[in-house]
Amino acid sequence: MSSPKAEAVQKTGATPRIEVIERYCKGCSICAEFCPTKVLEMETFVVKVVKPEACIKCMQCELRCPDFAIKVHTE
Amino acid sequence: MAYDYEKSIRPGKLPHIWCPGCGHGIVMKGLIRAMDSCGLEKNNTALVSGIGCASRLPGYVDMCTLHTAHGRAAAFATGVKMAKPEMTVICLGGDGDGTAIGGNHFIHACRRNIDMTYVIMNNFIYGMTGGQFSPCTPTGMKASTTPYGNPDPTFDISKLAIGAGATFVARTTAFHATQIDKLIAEGIKHKGMAVIEVLDDCPTTYGRRNKFRSVVDMMKKLKENAVPVQAASKMTAEQLQGKFLTGVLYKEDKPEYIEQYAKVIAKAQGQAS
Fold it and tell me: Which of A36, B27, B142, B203 has its CA 20 to 30 A from that of B122?
């Protein structure tokens, strides 16, 4: 799913803190699949933040998570 | 900054009951953002729903909520709006609740043009009761009661709403997360009956039976088949085959029911203007 458009985005500012509330996560993998820079990965039915430094703060994971389990703290 | 959804959710209610990957959670997020952007207050907003997976939604949101009989959300919402016209009334429900069991209430709420917003989460199936086919199950697709494929033609909820007289009709999908809150907010601000159809995914009872490999597959399908209304005018009928339009499909200004009814009351009491 990594699109050229997303790769062209320049990373600005500090790396955001991505909070995963594991108790809420049901492992649907929507967030990992639609992350343009593959920051998230599935690990035994729970999402894990594997490359936080690659995050471009597009907020798609937070927007699409049906379970309210991901928060991207940008400041 | 991370969006603060928790302030609008009843404490201790998460994690919710919906299956992994169910789009209702995405719609709930959109609804919360829409209500925030319209500045709706807890005590002056009523969320009304019937029965079904989608109708569980008001149980989680910290507003005035009413969980009613199957399909009767529109009827109860009409009652709330008549008794308290100053309240913002939002109806929530699924395709089975809204167009099959509650089809009659739905079309007459549209016809009367009552000032409320009806968000229909169309996941093409009765999810909670075991995956029976609904009026919105696409022809040929499988459900627990149509194991050889559904022979019925389907309802187009948006066209049904326009035909019945709703004055604001829009359609989006669970994939188009930012469009959900924009359209719901527009519907809330609209004076009259607003119907927002959100095409949703049901991985458990619909996806499994119809050879979708995963919930992501279902999301991608919604993305591929959605055509924005503006783009559709430049496309041929052939190109539009199997696609659906998204965005604001219909909007007009017509007299609103509660105001018209107030005039009748005034006339009956001898104060006709």
Answer: A36
Report yes or no on whether pTM surpasses 0.90: yes
* Token pair for B58: 């008001």
Mean of the pLDDT values across residues B11-20?
A: 92
- In this predicted structure, what is the pLDDT of residue A1? 46
Q: Which fold has domain B17-228+237-268?
A: Rossmann fold (3.40.50)
CA angle A37/B1/B34 to nearest 5° reads 100
Q: Tell me, what's the ipTM?
A: 0.85
B3 vs A contacts (CB less than 8 Å): 62, 71
Residue that has been written with the tokens 């948006």 in this structure: B158
What is the distance between the alpha carbons of residues B49 and B51, in angstroms, rounded to a whole number? Answer: 7
Whether B248 shows a pLDDT value over 70: the answer reads yes
Average pLDDT, chain A: 85
Report helix angle B177-189 to B24-37, nearest 10: 50
Over residues A19-52, the pLDDT tens digits come to 999 999 999 999 999 999 999 999 888 999 999 8
CB contact under 8 A, A63 and B2: no
Distance (Å, rounded) from C-alpha B122 to C-alpha B119?
9
Chain B residues touching residue A73 (CB < 8 angstroms): 1-2
Degrees to nearest 5, angle at CA B59 with B53 and B64? 135
Beta carbons of A63 and B25 less than 8 Å apart? no
**Angstrom distances, CA of residue A14 to CA of A52, A74, A75, B182:** 11, 8, 8, 30
Q: Which residues in chain B are contacts of A27 at CB distance < 8 A?
A: 20
Q: Choose the closest CB to A66 out of B1, B3, B22.
A: B22
What's the rounded Cα separation, in Å, for the pair A63 and A46? 17
Could you say which of A23, A27, A74 has the minimum Cβ distance to residue B20?
A27
**CA separation for the pair B62, B8 (Å, rounded):** 5
Question: What residue spans define the domains of chain B?
Answer: 17-228+237-268
